[in-house]
Design brief:
The protein is of the alpha/beta class and 314 residues long. It has a five-stranded mixed beta sheet with strand order 4-3-5-12-6, with helices on both faces. It is built from nine helices and twelve strands. The chain is rod-shaped and about 105 Å long.
Length: 314
């Protein structure tokens, strides 16, 4: 490519040579530099000779009766050698901060219901332990989050099985299983019923859902129980769904993660689990891609928060 330096213009330099060079320049003596480095004087001399040879052969030091003095070539080299040393020290500091989760970044995404309780609890615990990590967060549906994860825009995504996404292509870490509730108006006959209800009891009801089709949504549970629910109103946002339910316009399914944020004129009736929990919640990462130390610590915080929530949902 035009304008790019030829690869032969970049000499192969050892950082050991540069370290020896800077120490000799600081001390003005091969002997003192060797003592400071814990090397022999001959070893220091070999490093300087190798460096001089790699840079074209010009001497970097004038040998004096007592000690040495930088040549003009040596004086030119000093700031560049110091910049290399500082860059390496900076890399070591940043890598150590990553290992200790005292810095770095965390990029994660989560589906909306997980953001209602699970994610805030985990994030609060993570931030308390690692306040210097730069955190960025996205919200979206599971398929979108998985695409963002694959593209490298996220380190980790909190996803669910509701959207029928191909989770087998990812490394998944199980967080919890969710049961379902049906949200009904406060005066609905099911409110006074003892125990969970089969969804078939609501086969003739109007439903409030985020999609006109039940496939790939919580209403998959109705399909599994043998009836196709009649979606009367498509409403995406959870608080808006509650408004429609409270007004008597239909009923809605509510996952356990959202059960703690229900308005007083709406009641939740537990749904009888038939054939297992309605959906599972996972933290997903890309298979074969290393999770950063910050990501690993956040995964631990998610597991802690999920464990606490699972105990309250039991």
């Amino acid at each position: 490519m035009a304008g790019m330096p030829n690869q032969h213009e970049f000499p192969e330099l050892s950082t050991v040579w540069l370290r020896a060079f800077l120490e000799v320049a600081r001390q003005g003596s091969f002997t003192v530099a060797a003592r400071t480095l814990g090397w022999t004087q001959s070893a220091v001399s070999r490093q300087i000779s190798s460096l001089e040879g790699a840079l074209g052969g010009a001497p970097l030091f004038d040998r004096l009766p007592r000690g040495v003095r930088l040549t003009e070539a040596g004086r030119v080299l000093v700031p560049y050698a110091e910049a290399v040393a500082e860059s390496l020290h900076g890399a070591v500091r940043e890598l150590a901060a990553l290992r200790e989760v005292a810095g770095g970044r965390l990029r994660f995404g989560a589906f909306a219901t997980a953001d209602a309780g699970l994610v805030p609890q985990a994030l609060a615990a993570f931030r308390a332990r690692h306040p210097r990590v730069l955190v960025t967060r996205e919200e979206g549906f599971t398929p979108v989050l998985l695409d963002r994860l694959t593209a490298g825009h996220l380190d980790l995504a909190v996803v669910s099985t509701t959207g029928r996404a191909p989770l087998e292509a990812y490394q998944v870490h199980h967080l919890l299983d969710e049961s379902l509730y049906v949200a009904v108006p406060a005066a609905h006959p099911l409110v006074d019923r003892d125990g969970p209800v089969r969804l078939g009891r609501l086969a003739d009801a109007d439903w409030i859902s985020g999609s006109s089709r039940p496939e790939g949504t919580l209403l998959d549970a109705a399909l599994r129980q043998g009836f196709r629910p009649r979606v009367a109103h498509v409403v995406g946002e959870w608080t808006a769904k509650q408004g429609y339910v409270a007004a008597g316009l239909g009923v809605a399914l509510v996952p356990a993660l959202a059960a703690g944020s229900v308005r007083p004129d709406v009641r939740l009736v537990p749904v009888l689990d038939e054939g297992g929990p309605a959906r599972a919640v996972y933290a997903a990462t890309v298979r074969g891609r290393s999770l950063s130390p910050a990501g690993a610590r956040f995964l631990g915080a998610l597991r802690e928060a999920a464990g606490k929530m699972a105990r309250t949902m039991a």
